[in-house]
Amino acid sequence: MIPKQDAAEWLRAYGQAWIDGDPTAVAALFGSAAAYHETPFDPPLKGTAAIRSYWQAGAAEAQADVTFESEIWSLSGSVVIAGWRAAFTRIPSGARVDLDGVFRLVLKEDNGTVLCTELREWWHRKEHPRLQPFHETA
User: Fold this and answer.
1) Where's the SnoaL-like domain (predicted)?
2) Any idea what DSSP says for residue 138?
3) How many independent structural domains does the chain possess?
């Protein structure tokens, strides 16, 4: 059984790693054989190397000005259901993106460290195009 404060700390660390654009820190939150289901329609990413690579390309190199917040909705044994919201600016387009999603996490304690062995997420996105600057005419 995972204590609620440990689950909340895992979510905080996940959000901070996203905000910092740190794929190594994200990968460190997962067990070596973790399954990361970014979408229910594709096979999961398997293992920390695949998770790190996904975050390197999808976030660290493509997002700026990230915000993240989460709330635990349910905790039963090692399974956490949490709502989350994030926002970021796309590189290089400058579009602002709002995300609202849900995690289903399976967490385990490994030598005093809480790691995720399975992450499933469902999310929706709203994009706001970057405003074009006014052009001055002489």
Assistant:
1) 12-109
2) -
3) 1
Contact criterion met (CB below 8 Å) for 28 and 116: no
| Amino acid, single-letter form, for residue 2 | I
Domain presence at residue 81: yes
pLDDT digits (tens, 9 = 90+) for 58-98: 888 899 999 999 999 999 999 999 999 999 999 988 999 99
Please write the tens of the pLDDT for every residue from 5-53: 999 999 999 999 999 999 999 999 999 999 999 999 999 999 999 999 9
Closest CA to 25 of 59, 2, 63: 59
Task: Using DSSP, state whether 17 is helix, strand or coil.
Answer: helix
* Cα–Cα distance, 66 to 77 (Å, whole number): 31
CA distance 136 to 72: 49
Q: What is the CATH number of the domain that holds 39?
A: 3.10.450.50
Phi (first) and psi of residue 132, to 5 degrees: -80, 140
137 belongs to a structural domain: no
Residue 46 lies in a domain: yes
